[in-house]
Amino acid sequence: MNTKTIQARNTIFGSLVFIFAVLVTAIVTGMGRRLGFVIPFPVMTVLAAVFVTLAVALVIITAKLKEPGIRKLFFIVTGVSAALIPICAILHNLVYALCIKLGWDFGGKGGDEAVFFILAILVCPALFVLGAMGSIVLLVSAKLKNKES
């Protein structure tokens, strides 16, 4: 395996985890008003774009590396779920607008669509955390095995 490629992948992975933590902190604290941690909307947009770009890069680099299957799986799950978070949020808004435009009414809620919303808010972040935790555990265990040898 190419050591520089693995280091690049690990740097991208670390950056994704950091940006995810910053975005979640900003969102959970009501855009940071309670903690004095305020991220302006344009900055949030840029962070989301960087997040998607890094996620796609993580998937591409991981797919090209020759690694054990479970490590590759965890990194790909992390990258794909990270890329899907903002994509599903955008799709939710587009489908919602389309439903309103076409006059479709789902249960009297004025065209509300919940599938992409649930994916963006619950499923993809949970998969991201699961993939990130699995990747971290496998990276740490590999380092410990190398130290013992």
Number of domains: 1
- Strand pairing plus helix content: what structural class? mainly alpha
If helices are DSSP runs of H or I spanning 4 or more residues, what is the number of helices?
4
Mean pLDDT over the full residue set: 84
Number of strand segments? 0
| Overall 3D form | elongated
Spatial extent as radius of gyration: 18 Å
What does this structure look like?
The chain has helices at residues 3-28, 41-64, 69-102, 115-148. The protein is elongated. The two termini are 18 Å apart. The chain has four helices and no strands. The model has no long low-confidence stretch (mean pLDDT 84). 79% of the residues lie in helices and 0% in strands. It has one domain. The protein is mainly alpha-helical and 149 residues long. Helix 1 (3-28) packs antiparallel against helix 2, helix 2 (41-64) crosses helix 3 (69-102) and helix 3 (69-102) runs antiparallel to helix 4.
Task: Write a short abstract of this structure.
The protein is an all-alpha fold.
Q: What layout of secondary structure does this protein have?
A:
Blueprint: H1 3-28, H2 41-64, H3 69-102, H4 115-148
Helix pairs in contact: 1-2, 2-3, 3-4
Question: Can you give keywords for this protein?
Answer:
single chain; mainly alpha; 149 residues
